[in-house]
Specification:
34% of the residues lie in helices and 19% in strands. By secondary structure, the protein is an alpha/beta fold. The chain has a 7-stranded mixed β-sheet with strand order 6-5-7-8-18-17-14. A 4-stranded mixed β-sheet has the order 2-1-3-4, covered by helices on one side. The radius of gyration is 32 Å and the shape is elongated.
Length: 457
């Protein structure tokens, strides 16, 4: 091809057009980046994005959220940057979240009035209510938003005075850990001694009877029956021993407590050392167990049955596997085995969910529906077993359903996986030798070989 002035001019025009088109494309991409956003998180645990539970919770917030962050503008402690990045993940899914930074040094009066305790503390405002978060993190912020989402102050009232499991004790058999979880979710935990009151408080959202150890008096039974008749919600945790005078309440609800203790070989295959630990692995369609697939463990549980009861809808919510059975003999002495004709084979029902519509005159105070949960075990909520398998998530779903907060069901706390890489000393030496010696030596040899071959041509 002959190179002349015309050819050079054409080449210059082509080069100029290419540069102009390239700049136009870069400009368009820059403009599009200001209007549209896309991001992805390639970390194994997704630690740079919100969990599905947090995203679902944000979708339920129908009003703007304002977050006041009390953090010093100090480059040595980049608290503001960390807070902005964390809140930015929430703003990505809910743009009407407003983040305001307040310097505690320049606004001491505001810090004092707000009760700020630490640098970096957040105050979340939603529909006239507010929550403090002293240690910002996804779990803490999502829990605070969950508390703000509750429209009214729910009160979970525990019956005391008969040796029930205590919501304030940290002993293995009590319910202190679960009560703390309820308080973290914005629920008020209270107690009531039926011998000291003329009636169960009307503002009780859910009444809890947690495994009594002594008999109820006839007057106390009457208070409980009146509470049920007036549309109150109830969580009743029973045990494989006697009912301690609560038989009239069982008759009122149509619940039959079968004598004996459930034996489930499944627990031993899972590594549990007690055959009386019942395992529930499958659940029916119900608001409590929607999107819930975890197994749950019920130590020393009792089987329930149900009589036909007019006006109530009953769901056998918790059922053991088919190879379990109800042991009518002793679990202490002898070999535990299924005795045909004496023991009752599985599957066995551990828990029933009952609900019925309420009349209009009661619905104004209690809500449109009454909800009751009866479970033949209280150990699964105890401090010793609450953290086993999916017990905690199930417990929170149950209380959310009883308090008519189905919108908060199936929002568990995200657990970040272990991202550490642990190498043996030999593997560490091999990797170090490879990067420090083998790879550089290979590059030197290959470069020298290429240079020598080109030189010989």
């Amino acid at each position: 091809m002959k190179v002349n002035r015309r050819f050079r001019r054409r080449v210059r025009l082509q080069n100029t057009a290419t540069v102009i088109l390239f700049l136009v494309v870069i400009g368009l991409l820059a403009w599009l980046s200001t209007r549209y956003h896309w991001q992805t998180d390639w970390t194994a645990s997704g630690r740079n994005t919100l969990s599905i539970a947090s995203v679902e919770l944000l979708q339920q917030l129908d009003s703007p959220v304002r977050i006041d962050a009390f953090a010093r503008n100090n480059e040595l402690t980049p608290v503001r940057k960390a807070i902005a990045e964390l809140i930015g993940r929430y703003q990505h899914h809910k743009p009407d979240i407003e983040l305001r930074f307040i310097n505690p040094d320049s606004a001491p009066d505001q810090v004092r009035d707000a009760g700020i305790m630490v640098d970096g503390e957040l105050i979340l405002h939603y529909q006239g209510r507010k929550e403090h978060v002293q240690q910002p993190g996804e779990q803490q912020i999502t829990n605070a938003l969950q508390r703000l989402l509750r429209s009214t102050g729910h009160r979970i009232v525990f019956v005391t005075g008969h040796g029930e499991r205590s919501p304030s004790s940290r002993q293995a058999q009590d319910l202190g850990a679960w009560a703390q979880q309820l308080q973290n979710k914005g629920l008020a935990v209270e107690t009531v001694n039926l011998a000291d009151v003329a009636a169960i408080p009307e503002n009780s959202t859910v009444l809890v009877i947690a495994s009594p150890g002594s008999n109820y008096l006839p007057g106390e039974i009457k208070l409980l029956q009146n509470y049920i008749e007036q549309g109150g919600n109830l969580l009743w945790l029973a045990e494989p021993d006697q009912l301690f005078g609560l038989e009239p309440l069982a008759d009122q609800l149509g619940i039959l407590f079968r004598p004996g203790t459930i034996v489930d070989p499944t627990g031993q295959t899972l590594g549990l050392d007690n055959a009386a630990f019942a395992v529930v692995a499958a659940y029916p369609r119900h608001a409590v167990t929607a999107n819930f697939n975890n197994i749950t463990i019920f130590p020393i549980a009792r089987a329930l049955d149900l009589e036909s009861l007019e006006g109530w809808q009953a769901t056998p919510l918790l059922e053991t596997v088919a190879r379990s059975w109800l042991e009518t003999g002793s679990l202490v002495s002898g070999t535990v085995q299924f005795d045909q004709g004496e023991d009752l084979g599985g599957p066995l029902t551990i828990g029933y969910a009952l609900n019925r519509p309420l009349p209009d005159e009661v619905a104004e105070e209690r809500g449109t529906e009454q909800r009751i949960m009866v479970i033949g075990d209280g150990d699964f909520l105890s401090n010793g077993f609450l953290g086993s398998a999916g017990n905690l998530d199930l417990a929170m779903n149950i209380i959310n359903w009883l308090s008519r907060d189905e919108a908060l069901i199936s929002i568990p706390v995200r657990v970040v996986g272990d991202a550490r890489l642990e190498l043996s000393p030999l593997a560490g030496k091999v990797i170090g030798l490879g990067f420090l010696v083998v790879i550089p030596l290979f590059l030197v040899i290959s470069g020298t070989t290429i240079w020598w071959r080109r030189k010989r041509r």
